[in-house]
Design goal:
By secondary structure, the protein is mostly helical. It has eight helices and four strands; from the N terminus they run αααββαααααββ. The two termini are 26 Å apart. Pfam families: WHD_halo_double (PF25947).
Length: 161
């Protein structure tokens, strides 16, 4: 399953580890977990929910019958990058839009744009494009943090394998 929520990418992975530590070890309800993340990260409850789902997408948290809990497995940047591509909606498509030569975030969005679900376009006909441009930029910045892409003055490019 690929999930959509992606919080804005921080400057370093420390913020992700801070979010991971905020997810309880003993399962808690979604509201409790989102509130805990919101308090610890100093974000809104909706942003806390995005962080919780993102942690779940990366294999840092899971939902059980009793609620959400933190997973204690040690994850490498490579593990996180793999989970990002496999479980975050749009990550794979954004990376596929990159080449060896840097591309602007706008150029990446132009390549990505056909994958934006139609219901998103119809839900907000005047605002979907701005929201999805921002999302593509967040995906690109997370890809850089996970060492799946590089950011240069001229834009974003694929990382040499």
């Amino acid at each position: 399953m690929r999930r959509k929520p992606v919080p804005p990418a921080p400057d370093a992975l420390d913020r992700l580890w801070e979010a991971h530590r905020a997810v309880p070890l003993i399962p808690g309800s979604e509201d409790d977990c989102c509130g805990r993340l919101a308090t610890r990260l100093d974000v809104t409850p909706d942003e806390g929910r995005d962080w919780l789902v993102f942690c779940q997408s990366l294999g840092l948290a899971r939902e059980t019958s009793r609620g959400f809990e933190r997973l204690r497995d040690e994850k490498t940047v490579e593990d996180l990058g793999h989970a990002f591509v496999e479980h975050v909606f749009g990550a794979r498509e954004v990376l596929d839009a990159l080449g060896d030569d840097p591309r602007s975030a706008d150029a990446v969005f132009d390549a990505f744009e056909p994958t934006v679900p139609n219901w998103e376009r119809h839900r907000d006909p005047t605002g979907w494009e701005t929201r999805w441009r921002d999302r593509v930029l967040d995906l690109l910045d997370w890809a850089v943090l996970f060492r799946l892409a590089r950011h240069e003055t001229a834009g974003y490019a694929a990382v040499d394998a």
